[in-house]
């Protein structure tokens, strides 16, 4: 069994730094800019012998009803509600602030157990803070340095009081649970976070009219018709030329692209009023280069005045701008009304099954004989290139090796012909296919 720990505090006290140290990876973005974290991010954490779920939260701040600050505080309140204990971080270097005192009172009213943690306590920085921190009414602060890993043994000792008793028998060895990693990508403000909230039937992710609300890649576990899915929300991806080097947006973009590369299936959300613009094509190509299965969802379809014409335009653009992903699934949806969301998930699992498909060597070589007979390979150095044999060497994406007489002599146009022929013969529409060429005799003879 495990328990859950929410990390809270005002902006820029080091919550994301502590979260990353506990989960052992750079899951949350860290930047000197206040207010970087917005959605709550959960991860499996380890501290000494303890195993628990850590939740990183947005910096607590004041704001009028309906403001971004108020919505961020609602996200933090939700994290505290699902936690067994909260860690309130304060900054030992800057000392206590009025905001620290205000939110300490707020946490006391929540009746949730709270551990006060003084961060940035490198050296002797904590000594002057200790007596002042007692005034928050949360007990003595535990002095740590999240950046340098100091004081974590004391933190582990305090957290141990909230850990459930260990089972008398060792748990069975964990096995792969078949969870599908589904990453949602797209340009800013196309409805990525709203889609996940609609699927979960919960305001789990922060949404609103402000551009760039999502910054971290946020993963949420879910189940649909008995199948486990990890839904991953990402920051909106703009053209690289529009992103200032070294800016926070660059970190968000890198996090989104990393989530894309680690996905099983990628849903590219596009705006139905401007389907498949150049940036959408760029994102689709990134998914194809990473070998991910891809589904295109055109959101805000309820606002389209001429649906048939719009769908025809979307399909024409997919065919002309993404010819290497011929047959890619595209679906008009509306997150606001719920139109086609079940069908979208069906397409996701169909794409996953094709992405995982394995083809026997017999059918594969019968296809090869027919494909080369219908369109023979070109001549090279006065001789026709011979493709002797084909075999599948991998899945996710489907990867094939062709044994040829002259590996470097097959032009890209002929390889595209073989790829499209293979795609059509074995029902692999929209799936990235890898063809590798090797020179030599058939090793299976």
Overview of this structure, please?
- The protein is of the alpha/beta class.
- The chain folds into 3 domains: 4-160, P-loop containing nucleotide triphosphate hydrolases (Rossmann fold); 180-355, 3-Layer(aba) Sandwich (Rossmann fold); 361-439, 2-Layer Sandwich (GMP Synthetase, Chain A, domain 3).
- Helix content is 33%, strand content 22%.
- It has helices at 15-23, 68-82, 98-109, 127-133, 152-160, 192-200, 248-261, 278-289, 307-321, 341-355, 361-374, 412-425; strands at residues 4-8, 41-47, 50-56, 85-91, 114-119, 142-143, 180-186, 218-224, 227-233, 265-271, 293-299, 329-332, 379-380, 383-384, 387-394, 399-404, 434-439.
- The strands form 4 sheets. The chain has a 6-stranded mixed beta sheet, sandwiched between helices.
- Strand 15 (387-394) and strand 16 form a beta hairpin.
Overall outline? elongated
Helix/sheet category: alpha/beta
Please give the CATH architecture of the largest domain: 3-Layer(aba) Sandwich
Strand residue content: 15-25%
Cα distance, first to last residue?
54 Å
Report the uncertain regions: 29-38, 167-175
Number of domains: 3
What gyration radius follows from the Cα positions, in whole Å? 26 Å
Mean pLDDT: 81
Total strand count, please?
17
CATH fold-level name of the largest domain = Rossmann fold
Question: Which CATH class of the largest domain is shown?
Answer: Alpha Beta
């Amino acid at each position: 069994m495990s328990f859950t720990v929410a990390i809270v505090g005002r902006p820029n006290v080091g919550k994301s730094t502590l979260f990353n140290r506990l989960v052992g990876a750079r899951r949350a973005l860290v930047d000197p800019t206040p207010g970087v974290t917005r959605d709550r991010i959960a991860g499996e954490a380890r501290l000494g012998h303890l195993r628990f779920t850590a939740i990183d939260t947005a910096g607590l701040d004041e704001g009028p009803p309906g403001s971004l600050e108020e919505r961020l505080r609602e996200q933090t309140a939700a994290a505290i509600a699902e936690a067994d204990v909260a860690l309130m971080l304060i900054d030992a270097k800057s000392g206590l602030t009025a905001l620290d005192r205000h939110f300490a009172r707020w946490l006391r009213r929540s009746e949730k157990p709270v551990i006060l943690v003084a961060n940035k306590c490198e050296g002797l920085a904590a000594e002057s803070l200790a007596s002042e921190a007692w005034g928050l009414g949360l007990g003595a602060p535990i002095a740590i340095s999240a950046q340098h890993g100091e004081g974590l043994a004391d933190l582990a000792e305090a957290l141990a009081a909230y850990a459930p008793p260990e089972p008398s028998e060792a748990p069975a060895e964990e096995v792969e649970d078949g969870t599908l990693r589904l990453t949602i990508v797209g340009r800013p403000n196309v409805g990525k976070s709203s889609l996940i909230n609609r699927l979960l039937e919960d305001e789990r992710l922060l949404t609103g009219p402000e551009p760039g609300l999502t910054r971290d890649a946020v993963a949420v576990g879910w189940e649909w018709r008995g199948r486990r899915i990890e839904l991953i929300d990402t920051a909106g991806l703009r053209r690289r030329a529009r992103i200032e080097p070294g800016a926070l947006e660059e970190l968000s973009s890198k996090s989104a692209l990393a989530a894309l590369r680690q996905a099983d299936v990628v849903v590219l959300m596009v705006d139905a009023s401007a389907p498949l613009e150049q940036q959408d094509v760029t994102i689709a190509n990134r998914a194809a280069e990473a070998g991910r299965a891809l589904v295109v969802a055109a959101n805000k379809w309820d606002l389209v005045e001429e649906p048939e014409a719009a769908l025809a335009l979307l399909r024409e653009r997919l065919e002309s701008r993404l010819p290497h992903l011929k047959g890619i699934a595209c679906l008009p949806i509306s997150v606001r009304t719920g139109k086609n969301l079940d069908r979208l998930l069906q397409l996701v699992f169909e794409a996953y099954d094709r992405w995982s498909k394995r083809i026997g060597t017999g059918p594969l070589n019968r296809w090869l004989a027919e494909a080369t007979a219908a369109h023979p390979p070109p001549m090279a150095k006065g001789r026709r290139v011979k493709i002797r044999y084909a075999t599948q060497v991998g899945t996710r994406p489907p990867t094939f090796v062709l044994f040829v007489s002259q590996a470097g002599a097959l032009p890209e146009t002929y390889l595209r012909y073989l790829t499209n022929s293979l795609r059509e013969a074995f029902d692999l529409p929209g799936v990235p296919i890898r063809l590798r060429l090797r020179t030599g005799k058939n090793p299976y003879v």
